[in-house]
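Quick one - inputs below.
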Amino acid sequence: MRKASPGRKAAVLAALPLMIVAACGGSDDGGGGGGSEGGDQSDAGPYRLGLVHSSEGPFATNSDTMRAGARYAVELINADGGVNGRDVELVEVDARNDPQTLVTAIPELVSEEEVFAIVAPVDSAGCEIACAIAADLQVPIVSAGAGRPGVLEPSRPWSFTMTAPDAANSIPVLEAVMEQEGAQTAAIIVDEANATTKAQGDLYAEVFDGSGVEVVSTTTYTSGDPSFTSQVTSMAAENPDVIALAAGPADAARIAVEVRTQGLESLLIGTGSLQAGGTDYINGAGEAAEGTITAAQFNPDNPDDPAATLLAQAEEDNGLDVVALNFSYAFDIVNMIAEYLTETEATASPETIEEDRQGLLDYLEGVDPYEGMSGDVRFAEDGTGDRPELYAVVENGQFVISEVGS
Amino acid sequence: MADLTLRALDITKQFLGVTALAEVTLEVERGSIHGVVGPNGAGKTTLLNVMSGFLPPTDGVVELDGRDITRLSPQKRVPLGVTRTFQNLRLFGGLTVRENVLLGQHSHARTGFLSLWPLRTAADKELDREADHALRIFGLTDYRKRRAATLPYGLQKQVEIARAVSAKPKLLLMDEPAAGMTAKERLDLVPRIRALRDEGITVVIVEHDMDVIATVCDVVTVLNFGRKLIEGTPADALASDQVRTAYLGT
Amino acid sequence: MLIQQLVNGLLLGTTFALIALSFNLVVGALDRLNFALGETAMVSAICGALLLSRLDLPFVLAFLAALAVGALVAGVTFVLSFRFVSADYHTAPILSSLGVGLVLTSLVTRVLGSDQRRVPTVLDDVRIEIGPLRIVGDQLIILVVAALMTVLLYVFLNRTPWGTAIRGVSDDPDMSGLLGIPVQRVILLTFVISGMLAGASGLLTGLSFHTVSPFTGFETTLTALMVIVLGGLGNITGGVIAAMMIGVIETLTVAYLSATYRDLIVFVLVGITLLARPQGLFTRDTGVVGRV
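Output:
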């Protein structure tokens, strides 16, 4: 184990007078210094949580959604009296999709802002870097979206992600879908320039292998390619029952339009990440997206409580038509941390913060399940989310979620 | 007083202190063909450049129909009726012969926003007719669709003159039109220049070749070392001892 | 399927040809490259796509709007990056127009967002089948409109006073000035027309690809550069042939090899061309008819 860096010690020393001032200030508003009951630490100032979002880059929209979910969680907690009588405060950093910013921002969050834990970037690339740095500083960090295989490897055991990796979630779901649809032949189109989508291509091969579907055509493109005419012509020659999209949502949308333009009636399928980026796909493809089936790990219409109640309330409070995956995941992250702090009455004070952080790790490892807005939350041993196996069908411009086998 | 189209009065032109022209006065009568001759370096082309606006004179005044145009650029002189040809060809090689001639009349063509209207108006047709007329004078009708660069040198010179003429100038300044022409082409040139004069164009020819000048010009000005040596009919000029000395050296 | 793929390639080439035509026009008029034309195409296409999808305008109107936007943007680019830049600094307009391109991209992302915009299908239920060949309605539109634009351009350049003036200016701007042709206005007009071509190319490409993205501007410029290098700088006919070649090569590579080789093969082809025939596969004509 690494020792605390000199910077951190300095920060702690520098912060001590502040703590004293804060304590004195606390006695002013009649808190009755020291006389509080078990859970009341209202003299200690707010619990501080870091949040790294990104106003630029391909995942800027997801990032905004994630931040909104975290903010909403904090709002509800504080309105309800906070945690152990203390407010929760989000310390936000805009990484602007720039790795260099992350490298300086995470240590700053820890040493200057003294955050207890961090909500990581939603995108896998940002999450990987942020988590590695946080792990170096021994601060728990949880992402509300990173799902690329192996994204947490450099930073375990300090890192978690709510998202189930595509493979774990999508393979069983899609195999079931293949069976359900009685598919015989399939074509795969892969974005070769992207690690995530290449992995999706392998995933489909496994799905079709597992469900006895013959792959009659595999075509490739590179991210952001303008035209898919050639690829779709190649696929059309084989007239497959199923076309599997190993593509980012925007590219997938254009493939879908080209498929329908060329008069192909094949079933379009996608992994869970296509549903996660669903707005881009549906807006981009319009009519052509209708009937597309994807694996899914989050149900915005979850009928079971407490998720149902939380979702309905979130929709109303935030004026949302539908609660997005990243929103609910971020909401649950903040609430799980709050629950841990409440249950253990951890103070996260400079003296105990290291111990308290370790405690949060143990808590997260142990949730079984945490019942939140996103349904039942569990983490697998590698820190990734253990999500329900769902699938989604695009109907009237919306993903409609069903459970496999239903 | 004679009816002058152009008057260049006391023109002096110095290049870095070297005097190319010294107080040369040229009075070009309306409807005349006026030759300017002299040995190489006599200042002929310099004088033509001053008259056409390519060079500002160091001193002196250029008047067109009595109006001072000394400070006007060549572009501004074109609409006033002064066009010129060049000693070295300056044709649009990639355009057809006819298009070259049409561009010559561009200062008269429709160039307002309405001119983007693709259909041809009566004015356009009039310009077309004039262009075709210019082509006919210079025997270019058969070549009108050829790309200018593909014509033999002598014909290209004809195209250049036709282009200068198509702007319907009052005054045409020709810089060594006969240079590079075959003997036959030179012979053809003479009646064509006369035809221009007959249409009311005043012509100034700067020429090295005394034969052409002697045949076609009404008046000849002889320059030597930037000074006017003599002015008169071609016969007078040729008879002058001074001219012989200047040309043959002493 | 090979024939179908060849047709796909030629259709892709058609859109390349328009944007290359747009570049070549400016090269002809000014011997300069306007590096903002790719972004000009993008801006026009985004405006056209918004009109189509948001306001449900008929395609013809959206197309005309794209032409207008392209013309406007190119005109502004001329004033900003070319008009007042001294001819002695050859690189200045390159850098300056590249800058205009960057500004255009960030303006679009700031004002309209960085989302891809959907271009709705225009002729939804038209599909022509000739033997094994299948051409869908929108491909037909692209083909017809591109051919129409090319013919109109040809007629304009060859049959109108302004067109002749453009060719004169591109042949010899100094002489044109001496003949009283308003050279700067002619060049502005050339930019405006090249902008219209870029706008047309942008929206037609969007129609072919079903979307337009605000980040494709420079990519378009690159493609156009490939085409005009291969076809011979300023050579219109060469540009069209090269565009078709690149379209077919790209399509066949994707269909029979792999998408990752596509750019590689085109780059290598262009590289070899530059080494072996720096003037391009088709030499620039000395004449303007070939150039413009």
